[in-house]
Amino acid sequence: MGRDVSMMNRFKPIITYFTAILIALFILTPLIWTFLCSVKPDSEILRHSSRILPSKFVFDNYINLFKKTQFLSYFLNSVFVGVVTTPLTLMIATPAAYSLTRFRYRGRNLYAGFILFSYMVPLLLLGIPMFMIMGYFKLLNTRASLILSYVAFSLPFSMWMLRSFFLSIPLALEEAAMVDGTSRLGALLRIVLPLSRPGLIACGIFTFVLVWNEYTLALLFIRSETLKTLPIGIAAFIGTTAYEWGYILSSIIMMTFPILIAFIFVQRALIRGFLIGATKG
User: Fold this and answer.
1) Does the CA dihedral 26-30-35-39 come out positive or negative?
2) How far apart are CA 139 and CA 222, in angstroms?
């Protein structure tokens, strides 16, 4: 019996790693297939065959993507909107979530529950009201319309997650700092925010990914070709009679690459932030 337990303990890490590898391959297979197709010659992309690897690796699709299309403009627009929206969302969500955990006022818990409920409203239902609001303020066909709408849509989830993270920080740490003469703002900046770094990173990544992939509002608000973001620009490669598969495949890889790199660098903080947000929520 003891020998069986010892054998199980010995093979348990192997089984765990093998299972993790299988799951990773299952998830990454579409991305790997997309990359391999993007470096195939055009004559092989639509050919029905069992060949997985291209006969030769060519990067003409990537070169032409930047030379013959406005992909770089789409890319920079998405970067600009994401870089502005993410810190703006955190700047609003942080003090709002802090107030839900440190100050007592009537309806606080009801308001906290309403925040999460508001995030469950489909974005498509908010499209027309937001379109009317942006039209009233003459903001249609501007980057400001996207930034303001994305901040409004990502705020509920960010506030809820940061609220859960602030609840995990002992109030005694702030009280001790304030006894030593630190103000409430100083305690927030010097104690709460450094301890909440994983939660802030998780909220920042969530917001940026939402902005990076959002299609509906960008389609409603933006008309100018020079202001289109990546999802709208890539959709333009799908014509009424033919698909520009070379451009579509290469643009998908270029759109995925920055997010993939960001996840690699912040994965530990991101996982910790989501776990604490889930357990304390």
Assistant:
1) positive
2) 10
Residue 2, both tokens:
């003891």
Model confidence at 275, in pLDDT bands (50, 70, 90)? low
The first and second tokens of residue 203, run together, are 């909220």
In the predicted model, is pLDDT for residue 29 greater than 80? yes
Average pLDDT over residues 242-253: 85
What radius of gyration, in Å, describes the C-alpha atoms of the chain?
Answer: 24
271-to-75, 116, 154, 278 alpha-carbon distances in Å:
27, 20, 19, 11
Q: What is the pLDDT of residue 5?
A: 55
Distance CA 198, CA 280 (A): 14
| Cα–Cα dist 142/138, whole Å | 9
Cα 172 to Cα 278: distance, rounded to the nearest angstrom: 23
What is the rounded distance in angstroms from the CA atom of residue 222 to the CA atom of residue 130? 13
Contact 202, 273 (CB under 8 A): yes
CA-closest candidate to residue 188, choices 177, 201, 179: 177
Identity at 88, one-letter amino acid code? L
Contacts of 160 by beta carbon, 8 Å cutoff, 6+ apart: 97, 112, 115, 116, 119, 277, 281
Which residues are bridge partners to 238 per DSSP? Answer: 243
CATH annotation of 60-280: 1.10.3720.10
Q: How far is the first Cα of the chain from the last one, in angstroms, to the nearest whole number?
A: 42
Among 210, 222, 216, smallest CA distance to 157 is for 210
One-letter identity of residue 34: T
**What's the pTM?**
0.84
User: What does the pLDDT look like over 167-192, one tens digit per residue?
Assistant: 888 888 888 888 888 888 888 888 88
Q: How many CB atoms lie within 10 A of CB 178?
A: 14
